[in-house]
Design goal:
The structure holds two protein chains of two kinds. Chain A is an alpha+beta fold. Chain A has a single domain, classed as Beta-Lactamase. Chain A is built from five helices and five strands; from the N terminus they run H-H-E-E-H-H-H-E-E-E. Chain A is globular. Chain A starts with 10 loop residues before the first helix and ends in a 12-residue tail after the last strand. In chain A, 36% of the residues are buried. Chain B is α+β, with helices and mostly antiparallel strands. A four-stranded antiparallel beta sheet of chain B has the order 2-1-3-4. The chains are: A alpha+beta, B alpha+beta. At the A-B interface, helix 1 and strand 3 of A face strand 2 and helix 1 of B.
Chain lengths: 157, 131
């Protein structure tokens, strides 16, 4: 177990730290070990993707993402989630997580469906029920809405 | 050009990919934190670049930390610092040797005194015979 982040404020590093605590000496934590009450300040920024290899589908979406998405996307399949949303961008590299089997974090800027420039950072964390295959992916992301004078440098996904 | 930063950990003789970042600073911060936790004997951050046009990739280590490195760094810093080690104490002369030396000096003084007295006596006797 790594030492906790006493002063670390970045969501992705704090969530990664929690993932390491859950994993212990295993490669991946079990989905059952995810306890929303253990991370109450982060849970709203989280989402979960079930069956990520065969038929990825959002099984949980935190309130922050519902608001940013403009509705509740819980239950949507991977391909149904709009790509020009914080959630869509944060899920876009799911294939990398499945290929490497390790946590992956990405950040970027883009203009979302509502015309807002967003600077975001996200993380996808693999979980496994049997310790052999990734059965669930826990995600986390937050963003800052850019001002009109701030340049969107790299709008491509 | 695609660039990612992978944290690799070394444990029980095996390097493993631990996590992947698109941001070097974030990857190094996490690697340093993991190093402080002391769970792994070595940690490195590897930059992976891939040029989609040429389809050529490259890797280079941008951060490396091992316990051996840390020990070496600490030793080097200790060497740089001014020495606080006290000089070794002078060898004490054994008491027995001191006693012998004093005895010799007393004997020499007595012998010298006796010779001087004898000399004075002889000179006085010769002076009396001459008178």
């Amino acid at each position: 177990m790594t030492e906790p982040h006493p002063r670390e404020r970045r969501l992705v590093l704090r969530l990664l730290d929690y993932w390491r605590q859950m994993a212990g000496d295993c490669d991946w934590p079990q989905p059952e070990t995810v306890d929303p009450q253990a991370i109450p300040d982060m849970w709203t920024f989280c989402f979960m993707i079930d069956d990520p290899k065969r038929a990825p589908r959002l099984s949980f979406v935190g309130d922050y993402h519902k608001e940013m998405y403009g509705g509740d996307p819980t239950g949507l399949a991977f391909h149904e989630v709009n790509k020009d949303t914080l959630l869509g961008r944060s899920m876009s590299y799911l294939g990398d997580v499945l290929a490497k089997g390790v946590p992956v974090t990405y950040g970027n800027q883009f203009v979302d469906l509502q015309g807002r420039g967003l600077l975001y950072r996200s993380i996808l964390l693999p979980l496994s029920a049997d310790g052999k295959t990734i059965s669930v992916v826990l995600g986390g992301a937050n963003c800052r809405i850019l001002g009109q004078d701030e340049v969107i440098e790299n709008p491509q996904p | 050009m695609m660039v990612v930063f992978e944290i690799h950990t070394f444990r029980e003789g095996v390097w493993k990919i631990d996590s992947v970042f698109d941001d070097k600073e974030l990857a190094v911060v996490e690697a340093q934190r993991m190093e402080r936790a002391g769970r792994y004997s070595a940690i490195r951050v590897v930059e992976e670049t891939f040029d989609e046009k040429t389809e050529k990739g490259n890797t280079r280590t941008v951060y490396r930390s091992t316990k051996v490195d840390r020990v070496n760094t600490e030793s080097a810093e200790r060497r740089k610092a001014p020495s606080t080690i006290a000089a070794p104490p002078k060898k004490a002369v054994p008491k027995k040797a001191q006693a012998s030396f004093t005895r010799i000096m007393i004997m020499a003084s007595l012998t010298l005194g006796a010779i001087v007295l004898a000399g004075i006596g002889i000179m006085y006797a010769l002076h009396s015979l001459a008178g």
